[in-house]
Amino acid sequence: MNTPHVALLGTGIMGRGMARNIVAAGIPLTVWNRSPEKAADLGADVAQSPAEAAKGADVVVTILSDAHVVEEVVREAEPARGTVWLQQSTVGVEGCERLAALAAELGLVYVDAPVLGTKGPAEAGQLTVLASGPADARETVQPVLDAIGARTLWLGAAGQGSRLKLVANSWVLTVVEGVAEALTLARALGLDPQSFLDVVKGGAMDAPYVQLKGAAMLSGDLDPQFPLWGAAKDARLIQEAGRAAGVDLAIIEAARRHFERAMVDGHGDLDMAATYLSH
Known about the structure:
Blueprint: E1 6-9, H1 13-24, E2 29-32, E3 45-46, H2 50-54, E4 59-62, H3 67-77, E5 84-87, H4 92-106, E6 109-112, E7 115-116, H5 119-124, E8 127-131, H6 138-148, E9 149-154, H7 160-188, H8 194-200, H9 208-219, H10 228-244, H11 250-264
Parallel strand pairs: 1-2, 1-4, 2-3, 4-5, 5-6, 8-9
Antiparallel strand pairs: 7-8
Protein name: NAD(P)-dependent oxidoreductase
Organism: Nocardioides pocheonensis
GO molecular function, one term: oxidoreductase activity
């Protein structure tokens, strides 16, 4: 298996950890970010533009905020025809289809591969990759996927990864909002909210995320592992996909409203657990 030269576009909360692990795996890497200071100190070459980053790359990785930004940056990058585009941003079903069309327009090999995990797993190389795309691209991207993730699931044609990402995130957002509401109810009923976390701990109703996010809510330790604005964006993407498929997603709709309320209250750049602050 040959070692690809990789360009990574987007060194935010997720991209920085991913970049460090790609470098640690011995893969030649060039990075670009709109805020250049976020691309520094990663051990990679730093490009001044997306086009400079993509020049000569075998694989171009995008890990950006939404489909609109991804499309804008890739058009600016103009990778050479035949380059493998490893698209790892969460963009939803319609966004994924739009980016696949862009790949066809530019002559790129499109691999749709969003990830499950937040800042910590990204830094530890422990992401789960939901990969989908042409089988003949797998060998090219596998060194990158091995560097950033603990597990890769290949799901079929491009687009399946983005679909499963929405399904998985629907559960994540449900858990986070559910924990926030349970803690709020406990407080309103005159209980110590910690008693909820204690009573479910280790039992059938518990999950690592319940304790992790519940503890963050109660301690106020809201350093963004996954920012609240991103949770609100993903909730909208999940709703759009459900609506298009004829599915009523009432819980996600309620969670989105609560996330957006917390954003109005000024908590958008905090961790998604900050939804608790606005209950």
